[in-house]
């Protein structure tokens, strides 16, 4: 089990969608945008409100692939309780930081939760092309 923790608009849902795309859980003929954000308000505002879980199979064509459980969590600080509950069910996190905005306070708060839970933390810098 793993989760992606990031500040709002740092690319968490986009990264989750790309992971789904690479593990063949998404049909490439369909829209590539905001798969895990299924509520209309989430899609309208571009934020994650409710957490979702999905299984990723890698390599997808293998008869016995590795199974990863991605728990997509909200990025907004108002959902700290939901995020902390999700992290308690994880073994590791991807700590996603927007290169143009840097580390935000809520990202540090989520980092501290992950650290206190002894989760494996994989730091990722996003939007380096900007």
TrEMBL record:
Pfam families: GTP_EFTU. Residues 1-130 form the Tr-type G domain. It comes from the Eukaryota. GO terms for molecular function: GTP binding; GTPase activity; ribosome binding. PROSITE patterns: G_TR_1, G_TR_2. Keywords: Hydrolase. One of its GO terms (biological process) is positive regulation of translation. The keyword Hydrolase applies. InterPro entries: EF-4, G_TR_CS, P-loop_NTPase, Small_GTP-bd, T_Tr_GTP-bd_dom. NCBIfam families: small_GTP (TIGR00231). This is P-loop containing nucleoside triphosphate hydrolase protein.
């Amino acid at each position: 089990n793993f989760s992606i923790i990031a500040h709002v608009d740092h690319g968490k849902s986009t990264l989750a969608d790309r992971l789904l795309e690479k593990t063949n859980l998404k049909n490439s003929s369909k829209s590539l945008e905001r798969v895990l954000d299924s509520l209309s308000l989430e899609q309208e505002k571009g934020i994650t409100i409710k957490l979702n879980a999905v299984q990723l199979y890698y390599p997808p064509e293998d008869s016995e692939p590795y199974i990863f459980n991605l728990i997509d969590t909200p990025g907004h600080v108002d959902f700290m309780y939901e995020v902390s509950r999700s992290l308690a069910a994880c073994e590791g996190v991807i700590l996603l930081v927007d290169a143009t905005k840097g580390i935000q306070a809520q990202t540090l708060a989520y980092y501290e939760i992950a650290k206190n839970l002894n989760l494996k933390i994989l730091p990722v810098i996003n939007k380096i092309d900007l």
